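RECORD TYPE: inverse folding
INPUT: structure tokens
STRUCTURE:
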């Protein structure tokens, strides 16, 4: 496997000039910077080495598949398409995204089940330039998850993102990740947080929601992003979050809170 100078496994989503420049995305551009090809194309063995054994046609198929997915599920070709909703900025309006089944995993939708992807997008935005590489767009972050729905989502996406994706995603980018099953022991000094809380609305079945968070030293509170009911909390403790949620909706009962503290790579 090829490794970069940080000893992090390189992104395998590569492309070379003969595939067509329309299919070359940011990861391919990064590779092209490392492999200055003066003329022609690499020998088959060299190409195979730098793509971890993937065949040339497989690369073309994967990239073309991504383009088709983006066009279909981000409503890219629909009237009123707004690219700023996909550019990697902070998202607080999950309900405004596509409700199309299949837009998050095989059976889920972004609006109903994509809170995990939005939480990762928001942490990326909070960490901003402290993350290595170019800024990740939300549509790219989303596709990274759904391209392997079986591994990265629960029940094809209808039960949201698999929790193991959070530490895997950030450790692959050189971040330090600390998991807290006891949310009351979370320190305030992490660069950003992903919070997963389980709750019920009245007699409903158990539900779960991911949010991104960042500690505000002035307010001495954690700001929560893409959480429709509560904007900030003094602690991630289940009892504290439950109390705040209940102020907004008396039928909501928070039963458990899990937290990942995320720190950007040290320079």
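DESIGNED SEQUENCE:
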């Amino acid at each position: 496997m090829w490794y970069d100078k940080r000893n992090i496994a390189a992104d395998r989503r590569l492309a070379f000039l003969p595939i067509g420049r329309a299919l070359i995305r940011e990861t391919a551009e990064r590779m092209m910077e490392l492999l200055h090809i003066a003329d022609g194309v690499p020998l088959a063995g060299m190409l195979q080495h730098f793509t971890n054994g993937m065949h040339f046609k497989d690369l073309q198929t994967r990239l073309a598949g991504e383009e088709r997915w983006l066009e279909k599920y981000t409503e890219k070709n629909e009237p009123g398409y707004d690219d700023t909703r996909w550019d990697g900025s902070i998202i607080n309006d999950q309900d405004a995204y596509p409700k199309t089944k299949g837009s998050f995993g095989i059976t889920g939708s972004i609006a109903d089940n994509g809170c995990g992807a939005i939480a990762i997008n928001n942490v990326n935005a909070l960490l901003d330039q402290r993350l290595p590489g170019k800024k990740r767009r939300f549509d790219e972050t989303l596709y990274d998850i759904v391209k392997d729905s079986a591994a990265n989502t629960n029940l094809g996406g209808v039960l949201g993102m698999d929790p193991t994706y959070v530490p895997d995603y950030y450790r692959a980018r050189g971040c330090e990740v600390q998991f807290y099953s006891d949310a009351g022991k979370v320190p305030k000094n992490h660069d950003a947080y992903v919070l997963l809380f389980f709750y019920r609305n009245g007699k409903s079945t158990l539900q779960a929601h991911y949010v991104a968070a960042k500690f505000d030293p002035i307010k001495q509170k954690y700001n929560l992003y893409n959480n429709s009911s509560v904007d900030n909390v003094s602690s991630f403790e289940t009892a504290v979050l439950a109390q705040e949620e209940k102020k907004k909706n008396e039928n909501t009962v928070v039963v458990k809170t899990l937290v990942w503290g995320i720190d950007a790579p040290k320079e």
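NOTES: The radius of gyration is 20 Å.
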